Amino acid sequence: MVMFLSKLQQHTPTNEDIWGDDPLGRRECAVTLTRLIRATTKPYVIGIYGPWGSGKTVFMHQLQLELEQEKVPTVRVDAWRTDYLADPLVALVEAINQRQADEAAAHGGGLTRSPDELLEASLAIALPLSEIGVAATAVATPLLAATGAALKGALVAAKEVVSRRVKASKDLRIGIEHARDYLTGRARPGVVSPIVKPLVIIIDELDRCRPDYAVRMLERVKHFFDVNGIVFLIASDGKNLPAAVNSQYGSGLNSEEYLRKFFDYEYVLPEPNALQFTGVLFQSFGWDRIVPEGKMLFDQGFGSREQIASYVHGIQSFDRRYDYSEALDLFPKVADWLDLKLRDQAQAFTLIDVYLRTREPEEVAFPQLSVFLACMRFGREKKYREIIKNPTSQSFLGQMDFERPESSGLKPLRDWVTALASWDRPSQQKSSVIVNNAREYGSVDEPELLPIHARLRKLSNIGLSDVTSSFSRLARA
What we know:
This protein is mainly alpha-helical and 477 residues long. It has 2 domains: 27-126 and 168-268, Rossmann fold; 274-472, no CATH class. Helix content is 57%, strand content 6%. The chain has a 5-stranded parallel β-sheet, sandwiched between helices. This is P-loop NTPase fold protein. Residues 30-291 form the KAP NTPase domain. It comes from Stenotrophomonas oahuensis. Pfam families: KAP_NTPase.
């Protein structure tokens, strides 16, 4: 069987297919938020919360398309791509102007106010506050520094700067209102009795920005966009923004309380369980083509000697479908036990995929242990390094949950570790007896151990260190 490496293929939302199969069950979340937004006429800021790696960016894109289909205009700002700017206000205005330009091109103009005026106002406000000091310094030369004329000139210059900013603030607000009216159809020529709806501004990736930029973005939203009919959707993991506030204003500030001043409503995205997401990974990595029936496990329908013999033969003839199937069965259990986030699950699954696809044609694979090591790599990195450096049964078993072996899915792992830790000549002889009885008579006293014995029967010298060394070459410790 030819194996091709793959990677996580996320569904790309389009106008024709926003949700795909909606494997994470988030369409209902978008419906709820869309209803809330359409009913909003006041200034409103909604925080969309989800852990790092939980798929917030994809959801924000899907929600944006849903809103557009409901004829609610949106403007999207990728904050991380713009945090090279000194002031996020410029990024916000540029995004609004771009949307206005797109609408004007699509509808043959109709703008009642030049977007340049909005940009000019934002630039005037975005000039650093030190400009006032610079203006004073430019007038107060060393020779005249102590004279009344110099002081008077400095004050005049400073007043001009302040006056310009006050005017710019008014112009900016007027420009925002004009943009809202144009994009929502309130002021578009030919539109009769338009339905009142908000303009939605989506800010994504804010928690990846440098702290000063992230905090200033929120402050700019509060100070300059407190306009009826403007709704903000701001994605966050709920951890980085509080840290950004403390980095700017000191650890003594209650950052959570400070942030509540900026958000009117907080919506937490439900996180899918590991089993649900494994189905996404299963298809995305092409495992559904390798194991079309989904499962080929030792305990699936073995009611006859022929079925058991077929299973043992498949394992011993290096039919990789059995390896993939057993990895697939265990993965969500270990991912759930270690509380892996979606992005961590995707990275762990990638590592398992690489491990299985790079086995030699007649090389024994250890799917259960590859699942454990991959999940530990992204869920307990420090413990993973300890195991790799000291691959003993104690280092493995010390990380496993003995209190809930069945619910956590760790019993097969314990069986594998125990077998490998004591793989000597008597164990090999015992394994041969177990496998022969299974093939010849359909008799399996300990069926949960059959996958181990079927794989290890032909090996004379193998141990945990051999498994971990072959795996660690694929994953940086």
